[in-house]
Amino acid sequence: MGSGADKLLHYQQQLRRTRWDVAKGARMTELFTDANGDLPEYHGQLMQLAEMIDRVERSMSHSLQFFAHRCGLPFIDSQVLASAFDLGENARPSVIAEHVRVPLSTMTGVIARLERNGLVVRERANDDGRAYILSVTEKGETVLKEMLQPMFEEIHKVITEAGDDALHSITVAFEQVCTLTEMLERRVQEQARD
Questions:
Q1: What is the count of structural domains for the chain?
Q2: Please, what's the b/e burial string for 155-182 (b: 16 or more CB within 10 A of its CB; e: otherwise)?
Q3: pTM above the 0.85 mark?
């Protein structure tokens, strides 16, 4: 995968982590309206941003599901395989489970399927002999390429149709969204410590 493909996968994963399911709820707006039934301007904008992030994630997920299915993989297996590859030496089942937002108990079955199909192998973690990491095999890398390459080609076509500077503009905007959501996460973590 080229660096552009890596960046798009990274931004998709960042967007998955920044989805605001509660904030975008239609009924949720009732909690924040003033006496006149008006929403504060910033709240409406945040809800709009959350909805856009959700739309991007859903669209990317549907596309990935399609290409995973063409490679004979269930969607969750494709997510775990891509995350294991992306995380490299940090691809412990607990980290991958958090990455793809599934319970660790679900990971057990997914890992077993990926191993049976020869897409990953378990290796002992260097820093903890009791723990293990998942390494993507050559066959797993081939499946990832077969799954992601056509998807990224389609994304490239769409972006090219949008204009010459579309990818740059999208990348800058997503970087800003990621930076802001990371700032929010740090502030919430600081408040949780206090």
A1: 1
A2: beeebeeeeeeebeeeeeebeebbeebe
A3: no
